[in-house]
Amino acid sequence: MIDLHSHILPGLDDGSPSLAESLQMARQAVADGTTEMACTPHITPGIYENATANIARAVQALEQELRGAGIPLVLHVGADVHVAPDLPERLAEGSVPTLNSSRYFLFEPPHHVLPPRLEELAARLINSGFVPILTHPERLTWIKANYDVVERLNAAGCLIQITADSVIGAFGRSALYYSEKLIDEGRVDIIASDTHGARRRRPGLSQAVVAAAKRCGEDEVYNMVVKRPNDILANRPLEPIGKAHAKTGAAKAGRFAGLGRLFKGGSV
């Protein structure tokens, strides 16, 4: 499986505090079936002033440590990018990284306040050639009163990523409810761990895969944790699944092959 959202790089944000913890997180991810991971520390103006250069150096350093420790986890450069008015310009100049230098990037709104002109910013980003991946909307406290904003962002071209722990109820009833609602409506493009530590918010996707498969089918979950993440890292064009479902009027998820490919030696 491929995990596109992690805070595994040591000392860059509120994720891993040390190299030792990062190595433990990597071991846990591999044991759970993750083969590739995007390293996506926060970029939050005034709080976490990360940028492409220091993130890339940190990824290279951690890759060397993983090789030395014999941990078979492939890493990719990325960031968990907080909304900001100048984001299109910073992405275009390369100071803010996309996922593996693709057109796709993790787009994080504030958790507790719906920012003004969020949809306008998303439109500017898309018109500039980038594809925002809206991170964990099911956990945003403003989703209950503003679910229509998530729907419109999805229809405009934003992909949707939900958190693995939300799907299994570890973030509480509201996050579980909205993760299931988004899955049932055929809006979820990606499930990722958003791991922050080896004990708190541990890496791993397998439990969420099993839970989500009961709602949308095994083939569709395979798409969420293998096919679409792989396409994103390869910069292949993707349309949000929610947009496609709006056109067809219904999800058409298979229910038989996906988990076999994930957990019985198939190509991941």
TrEMBL record:
Enzyme class name: hydrolase
GO molecular function per UniProt: protein tyrosine phosphatase activity
Keyword Ubl conjugation in annotation: no
EC number(s) reported in the record: 3.1.3.48
Catalysed reaction, written as an equation: O-phospho-L-tyrosyl-[protein] + H2O = L-tyrosyl-[protein] + phosphate
InterPro entries recorded: Caps_polysacc_synth_CpsB/CapC, Pol/histidinol_Pase-like
Key words of the record: Hydrolase
Pfam families: CpsB_CapC
Source superkingdom: Bacteria
PANTHER family reported for this sequence: TYROSINE-PROTEIN PHOSPHATASE YWQE
Family, similarity comment: Belongs to the metallo-dependent hydrolases superfamily. CpsB/CapC family.
Protein name: protein-tyrosine-phosphatase
Lineage: Bacteria, Pseudomonadati, Pseudomonadota, Alphaproteobacteria, Hyphomicrobiales
